[in-house]
Structures are given as C-alpha cells and as structure tokens.
Design goal:
Length: about 240
C-alpha cells in the first residue's frame, strides 16, 4: 500500500513532535529513515527507540545541508523542520525574526529539496517529497505575519517543485496542519482566550494529535498517492473550509 519498504527517506524536524511521530510511522512502513535536526541527543534517543539513522544538520546553513545531503542516497523527503518565530502584527514585527523564520521554514526546505532532488534524479528511481506547511498559509491568522508568510512561500515551493520534478517521477506535496500542542504552539494556542474562540470556529472543535499529521504525511509520501502532486492538503478539522 505505502510502497516504502527499504526506501531511504529523510525527515527534518525529527527531534520535534510531528517529525518524531512521522519517523515512527515511516519505520513501521519499512522505510530506511534518516532523522534530522540539530539536537543530536534527541535524535540519538529516537534512533535507539526506532532503529532510524541520524543525519544532523542546520537548515539555516547551505553548507551544512549540502555537506549532509551531497553524498546521501535519498528517495523521499519530509521537510518538517520549522521555527515559529513571534506573534506580532505587520505594524510591530521584528524584521530580524521575519528573516530567521523565512530562513528556516522556506529557504531551509528549499535547500533540502535542492540537494535531495539532485540525488533522486541521479538515481533515476523517482521519489516523493512532503513539505510540512500550516493552516497559517491558507488563511489570515492574527499575529502570524512572519510564520504565515514563510509557509505560504513553502506552499509555492511545493507547486513549482512539483512542476519541475514531475518529469523525473518525483512528486511534491504539502500538508497544512492546524494546531498540534507541541513546544512550538503551546505558549500561544494554549491560552484559553486564544484557543477557545479558535476551536469554536472549527467544525471538529479540537486540536490535532501528532499522529493525525504523521499518517497523512506517510500517505502522501507513498504509492497510495501516486497520482497526487502539487497539492496543499489541509489537516485542520475543517477550519479553513468555513
Ligand atoms: N505544532 C503545530 O501546531 C504546527 C501546526 C502546523 C504546522 N506545524 C509545522 O510542523 C513542523 C514541526 O513542528 P512541531 O510542532 O513538531 O515543532 P517542534 O516540536 O518545535 O519541532 C521543530 C523541529 O524543527 C527543527 N529545527 C528548527 N530550527 C532548525 C534549524 N535551524 N535547523 C534544523 N532543524 C531545525 C527542530 O530541531 P532542533 O531543535 O533539533 O534543531 C525540531 O526538530 C514545523 O515545520 C511547524 O511549522 C506545526
């Protein structure tokens, strides 16, 4: 069903919540998983638990991404590494924070696609890439000027990459999750005056779990989605549909 048995798949953000859940699901599906992030201890703990390999690098550095991916045989990529930045309006935003959010979430994901796709094309076996975007790219969320912009850029990287890589049988898709209560989101969405009204507007009316994001990622990565490329798939309990 998934067709991932024995295939080498890189997961960035694997030291975090959604990335860690994705590594566990991919290992279950038989993929050879390279777990990436900067926190070597967290990656080693995940490797001891799941049997995944580790490939630490810094998404903010082209040299670091190139050195890690230049000689690595990759069939699939989950671009899950990300940085939340700040909650601010366009009138008050700190442009240094904006630059860093774009640097990690959009530029970093593009760097991974750049070097991983070179290996995929060289190997001639096709491939699949899933970018972890956000509901914040699809609608305007208060305070999300930097983060939403970075994820909107990522969705366009998805579409253009799907266009350019299709002829090599490499598919590229995004998932656009709602809030999962990981370290990244708790400080803001965990406040009752913020989270309460938001959940009232969402048809399913609850936060997503890490696994509810990981399973659709594995679906899009694998053969069950063999005719799907260039999409941004909301995983948002219906929030952006209403
Ligand atoms: N949680 C949510 O509500 C939510 C909703 C929608 C979308 N998302 C997206 O889902 C993805 C995962 O989020 P999460 O909630 O699981 O966050 P998390 O637990 O905070 O994990 C973030 C991950 O990104 C990695 N990372 C950050 N900066 C990096 C850098 N410069 N170089 C390499 N790795 C870096 C971190 O690794 P190190 O710390 O080891 O460097 C960590 O593994 C992100 O792209 C996020 O934007 C999250």
């Amino acid at each position: 069903m998934w067709g991932l048995q024995g295939k080498p798949v890189l997961v960035t953000g694997a030291s975090g919540g959604i990335g860690g859940a994705t590594v566990r699901r991919l290992v279950e599906a038989g993929a050879v998983v390279y777990a990436s992030g900067r926190s070597v201890d967290a990656l080693n703990t995940l490797a001891a638990e799941t049997g995944c390999k580790t490939l630490p690098f810094d998404l903010a550095s082209e040299e670091s991404v190139r050195a890690a991916l230049g000689g690595t045989d990759i069939w699939g990529v989950v671009n899950c590494g990300g940085f939340g930045g700040e909650i601010a309006t366009p009138m008050e935003t700190d442009i240094a924070v904006f630059d860093h959010v774009i640097n990690v979430n959009a530029r970093g994901a593009l760097l991974v696609i750049k070097y991983a796709s070179q290996s995929m094309i060289r190997n001639g076996r096709g491939g699949s890439i899933v970018n972890v975007s956000s509901q914040a790219s699809l609608v305007a969320l208060s305070g999300h000027i930097s983060y939403g912009s970075s994820k909107a850029a990522l969705d366009n990287i998805t579409r253009v990459s799907a266009l350019e890589l299709g002829k090599y049988n490499i598919r590229v898709n995004s998932v656009n999750p709602t809030v999962v209560m990981t370290e990244m989101s708790e400080f803001y969405w965990g406040r009752p005056e913020i989270g309460g009204p938001f959940l009232k507007q969402m048809p399913l009316g609850r936060w997503a779990t890490e696994d509810e994001i990981a399973v659709p990622i594995v679906f899009l990565l694998g053969d069950g989605a063999s005719m799907i490329t260039g999409v941004s798939l909301p995983i948002d309990g219906g929030f952006t549909a209403c």
